[in-house]
Structure formats: structure tokens, C-alpha cells
Amino acid sequence: MSNIKNTRLYASPYNPKFCIRSAPAADDDKQRKIAGTAMLFGEKTVLFSIGDVDYCEIIDAHALDSCDMSDCVFTRNHQADKLLARTKNNTLQLTITEHGLDFAADIADTQDGRDTFELIKRGDIEACSFFAEIEEASYNVETHTRTILKFKRLNDVSAVTFPAYENTSIDAEMRSAYGFEEAETAAAKQKIEEAKKRILLKF
Hints:
Blueprint: E1 2-11, E2 18-22, E3 33-40, E4 45-50, E5 53-59, E6 73-76, E7 79-86, E8 92-96, E9 100-106, H1 111-122, E10 127-140, E11 145-160, H2 172-177, H3 180-201
Parallel strand pairs: 5-11, 6-11
Antiparallel strand pairs: 1-10, 2-3, 3-9, 4-5, 6-7, 8-9, 10-11
């Protein structure tokens, strides 16, 4: 098992369900509160498959122990311009439990806030993701499983239409974590050497 340090920003592939904690009160149609789970500990998730091999990931139960969550935002689809709540002003509250990371958000009374709340309430949006910086992770080459051991900073919790990596290609960070970057570099070098040989054969 190899350790991976400072793997930078990371978009979660997790897809826990939202739950509506309370609908707007009759005498206050501006009150929009939602709650849910943004991260699950110890759950093996298949991120992608290549042939018959599944590449998985697990978040360690202590990954958030020293994580900076002092200025985390709640957004729609990880878009900073669709800011809906924030820990800095206590409109977003984060709670670490034995199961993972729970959140409760007072959604802003903006067009984006009203639209997002209604879509969650109707069930059009039911997935949650997070955006964070990983400080330490390990990788088991036998089981093809990465374990996130420590997060450095939690940047964003988001209501998402589709969870990360669903029907998308592997991003650069994930490729590096699973060693594909090195494999592609080796393949590229081999292609260059083969090209050189072809050129030399012409002379």
C-alpha cells in the first residue's frame, strides 16, 4: 500500500440523498431549510471500471479530524456564483458524525436559492457532493482501492444534478492518484522511441 501526499483539490463521487428538514413556514415564505449528508465514512464506492477491474475509494472515519471547515460554502453544482449558504456566517452548519458529514443549510432568498430549494423539494435534485483538498491518502494496488486518510480543507458542499464522475471521464487528479498518469507517460515515451526508430530506418 502506497501513501499519496498533497493530492490537491478533489470533487466527491458520493451520492447520498437529500432530506428536507422543514418546508417554508406559512407565515414566512422566505424560510428555506434543507439538510442531508455530504460525505460517508467507510463506504467503498466504485469510481470507474476498466475492463473487469473496479477502481474504488473509501473515506477514513478520521479524515475530517483536522480538516479546516471554517469557510465552506453551499452551492449548486459547485458553481461559486450560485452561493446559497456559508459556514462563515453560520447559514451552513456542518456536523461530523460516526457515519460521515451531515449538513444543514438556510438557503438564501435569491433566485438561485428559490429555484434550488424547489428542485430539491420536488425531488428533481437529490444528490450531494463536496469539494475538498486532500492532504493524505493511500492506495492498495491489489484491491485497486484508494483510502482518503486526511482532508486539509473542505471548500464546498453542493446540491448536484449528477454526482461527480457519473458519465464523465476521469479527471487529472484521479488519473494521477491511480497511476494512469505514469502509465501514459511511459506509453508516450515508448511511442517517441518507436518514432525515432522509424525515422532512422529512412536514412
